[in-house]
Amino acid sequence: MNIPSVEEQAALWGERLAAAGIPPDGLMSHSQVGARMVPGDDDSSRLGGAPRMPAGWSWPAWHGRPLQYLAEIDLDGLARVLSEDQRHGLPAGGALHLFADALGEGWGFDPEHAGSFAAFLVADRVEVQRFETPSDVRDPDGYELELELPERPVELVPELVLPDCFSDETRSLAGPDQFDSYWDVRDDVLDEIFHRAPRHRVCGLPDIMQNPMELECQLASEGVYVGGPTGYQTPRAHELAPGAKDW
Pairing with 55, which of 137, 214, 229, 246 sits 20 to 30 Å away (CA)? Predict the structure, then answer.
């Protein structure tokens, strides 16, 4: 897949934002470079399938059911795309494996959701084997869950990621009358650059659902329930809030 360089992506963003009446400099000053996943031929990085892990590894579970395997990211390949500063602490070799609850019940606002997601780092040059996906797994109503997702090899390519529409940066830099315009520009530019490939990404900036997650992560990880406004208003929440910037 022919993907424009980061410099070409920046030029396109600047052109489209200006055409929509949105000053580009402010938003682009908060951009980061991430690694976008696009369809590929090499299965070093892939979505779905079954995990390739060292002997003796145990499949993670939550609430008595195995987590669903989501992805393997080749960290050698990631290092070829992103600099050390852009990799958010990920090493330059080995593989990152991601799992999550198949029913999507671990939303993250409740400390009890800990364990509904799992990440494993496998060091470079460690011998691995493919583990069979657990079968006969059932949901609380007794229906069988098909845990193994179709395997999709992906290629990692650089992406200039601008702040999401719901980010604090966007809210401070784009007025309410520009929100819909920015939303449309984001969709159009990303579809054009990545040929409508699904929006899977490593590092860079997140696509946000409703509100930024950092404060919620900080509080829930410290045992504060934030499934409603009350949790955010406690003295302990105010004490912990400055740590949200570290997420």
Answer: 137
